[in-house]
Protein: Dihydrofolate reductase
Amino acid sequence: MRELTYYVAVSTDGFIAGPAGEFDQFLFEGDHAAGIWQKYRGTAPTELANAAGLEYENGPFDTVLMGWNTYAVGLPELPNPYRHLRQIVFTRDHERPEGADDVEFTDRDPLEVVRELKAEDGGGIWLCGGGALAAQLADEIDRLALKLNPVLFGDGVRLFGDRSYDPAALRPLAITPYESGVVLAEYARA
Structure:
């Protein structure tokens, strides 16, 4: 059975984006970049990976899931951001943008879609964001991989949106600190 991994950058105070959706304070360069890329190869948009000379084949994921706000970050320049992966965007209110021919848009229940994906053959499933979608899928997340950044946002998009209190136990797999201040914290469902 395929696993769903929520792999995302997060501020030290638990936000995946600031109040206006900004994420420019996250560290994209530094000693953490190469090590994290080796482990999570293929998690950059295809054009950006190509421009940086990063190999994205044979990564842990063959499918990426996004909410509309996460997907829309790249518009209009990147309407088909992860061409090397199967891309599914959850939205009820938006139409397919021009150039997004290889992106699946759905208004279906994310839980149903993820359960169907897990039952299929294939590689890992990457939940790229956002927080509201992560809150809906919290009980289906098998692994959590956080690029914990040494920055405080104070407000913004929470890691798990406005999820109601429903504790779920996780067990640590690896905690890898880097000189840049980024910490890769990886967990599995207990």
Strands lie at 4-11, 15-17, 61-67, 86-90, 103-106, 124-129, 143-149, 157-158, 170-177, 183-189. The helical segments are 31-39, 46-52, 68-72, 110-119, 131-137.
